[in-house]
Amino acid sequence: MTLLTCENLTLGYEGRPVVENLHFTVQAGEYLCIVGENGSGKTTLMKTILGLQAPISGKVTTSGGLSRREIGYLPQQTVAQRDFPASVMEVALSGCLNKNGWRPFYTKAQKKRADQALDRLGIASISRKCYRELSGGQQQRVLLARALCAADKLLLLDEPAAGLDPTITEELYRLIASLNRDGMTVMMISHDMQAAVQFATRILHIARRPLFWGPTQEYLDSDIGRLYALKEAAR
């Protein structure tokens, strides 16, 4: 079942294209990893899918019962956000805000959903702790819990392991993979080719134009896939 279709997208800023003629679909249950050089339009693509930025041309459509308000999003975290003075539970619950409309309070069902998300990610025991007092790995789990509170079918993750040490990175990627195995569709931006190869079912490689979209093994066997893997390994 198709959840998302991007048709002939041209993305950019102030009318200046970053990536052109982008066309792909996302099927329910897939794990799509988006790769490419810095500035190639990966984050811009995610913001366009969320409706936070308009494309220069082309369109994004949802189907299969998916609403944009039901997409979970974990953006790259800024330094200011790491110092956010709220409890873990408050941060997780904020993922429900898009579904609240004009209602000023969270429902019992939403609080239960946040409890389940924290438990699913192994951080229920710190639900009352202040977010800014947590380690980087714990903070990313909290932000992932917030995204899960928003997501019914699709998670968008923008470099979720950026700045984390290798052990915590591996744990986080395995958590994301387990969510995918349980039925959550995942789109993740990553420079980590090892993680992309290990967990992704499909790869989207973009630059000024789309360079590849298809199964992971086909990407690894392609010239662009081999070249990019070598380049990332050399960093």
Task: Note down, in words, how this protein is organized.
It is a single chain. The chain is an alpha/beta fold. The chain has 2 domains: 1-66 and 155-207 and 218-235, P-loop containing nucleotide triphosphate hydrolases (Rossmann fold, 3-Layer(aba) Sandwich); 81-152, no CATH class. The protein has 9 helices and 9 strands. A 6-stranded mixed sheet has the order 5-6-7-3-8-9, sandwiched between helices. A hairpin with a 2-residue loop joins strand 1 and strand 2 (16-27). The relative contact order is 0.18. The model has no long low-confidence stretch (mean pLDDT 89).
Detail the topology: elements first, then pairings.
Blueprint: E1 2-13, E2 16-27, E3 31-35, H1 42-49, E4 57-62, E5 71-74, H2 79-82, H3 88-93, H4 108-120, H5 136-150, E6 154-158, H6 166-181, E7 185-189, H7 193-199, E8 202-206, E9 210-215, H8 216-221, H9 223-233
Parallel strand pairs: 3-7, 3-8, 5-6, 6-7
Antiparallel strand pairs: 1-2, 1-4, 8-9
Shape: globular
Overall structural domain count: 2
What share of residues is helical?
25-40%
What is the rounded distance between the termini?
A: 38 Å
Q: Which percent range describes the beta-strand content?
A: 25-35%
CATH homologous superfamily descriptor of the largest domain: P-loop containing nucleotide triphosphate hydrolases
Biggest sheet, open or closed, and with what strands and sense?
6 strands, mixed
- CATH architecture call of the largest domain: 3-Layer(aba) Sandwich
Instruction: List the strand order in the largest sheet.
Output: 5-6-7-3-8-9
Determine the structural class based on helices, strands and strand pairing: alpha/beta
CATH secondary-structure class of the largest domain = Alpha Beta
Order of helices and strands: EEEHEEHHHHEHEHEEHH
How many helical stretches?
9
